[in-house]
Specification:
- The protein is mostly helical.
- The protein contains 9 helices and no strands.
- Helix 4 (62-84) packs antiparallel against helix 5.
- The longest helix has 26 residues, at 193-218.
- The two termini are 29 Å apart.
- Residues 4-9 have low confidence and may be disordered.
Length: 224
């Protein structure tokens, strides 16, 4: 990681990721960081470092590189949010970072089928939108988006679970779509302010609907 952060020729698409690594590592080394957060951060930094190397390898295809970057970016966002959030309020973002770290490994794994990879990325997309919106939203106005992060994290974990059948995985990806569309519209700078406000008010209900859908599809998810 030290070599990565000292480089002057980092590709533009990796710049924000490389810039975030030292901050995350400082939190890992800070004795004031709760042990559970430290473990999540350390594993995320380790995985990001491995992934950045893989992205830069000449043998990595453009399609593979794009898939990896699509997970690297929200993981980086989650680390930034954790850094700026008091320890007692980090639970949703730490769980998200932990799950995205697992997703990154699965995206890299050649044994992951194209259908499984597509299912994972279908949930990563709205997570990316939600995390980006949170970064631009004052702390007191993040509740609905934090709820969406929590539920999307649960859904991602269920899709990753080897006990989830291909049919259930397909149902989960369909269940995510309404929230995906809403978050994409909110994030779109062309969306009028009034419409964005109306859409914001639907985020929590849609997150609750997704929670209901996941329970119907796979039963009550285990905590953690």
């Amino acid at each position: 990681m030290a070599e990565l952060t000292k480089r002057q020729d980092v590709p533009p698409e990796l710049g924000e990721v490389v810039d975030q690594l030292p901050s995350a590592l400082r939190m890992v080394e800070d004795p004031k960081t709760p042990v559970q957060d430290r473990a999540v951060l350390a594993e995320s930094v380790r995985q990001l470092t491995v992934t950045l190397r893989l992205i830069e390898q000449p043998g990595t295809s453009p399609k593979e590189r794009a898939a990896l970057l699509s997970v690297v970016r929200p993981l980086t966002s989650s680390l930034r949010i954790i850094e700026k959030t008091p320890p007692g309020q980090r639970t949703a973002y730490a769980a998200c970072a932990r799950q995205l770290t697992v997703t990154l490994r699965l995206i890299e794994d050649p044994r992951t089928s194209p259908k499984e990879r597509a299912a994972l990325l279908s949930v990563v997309r709205p997570l990316t939108s939600s995390l980006r919106i949170i970064e631009k939203t004052p702390p007191g106005q993040r509740t609905a988006y934090a709820a969406s992060v929590t539920q999307l994290t649960v859904t991602l974990r269920l899709i990753e679970n080897p006990r989830t059948s291909p049919e259930q995985r397909e149902e989960l990806t369909r269940a995510v779509q309404p929230l995906t569309r809403t978050l994409a519209k909110i994030e779109n700078p062309k969306t009028p302010a009034e419409e964005r406000q109306e859409l914001t008010e639907t985020v929590r209900p849609q997150s609750e609907e997704l929670a209901d859908a996941t329970r119907k599809i796979v039963g009550t998810p285990a905590p953690g």
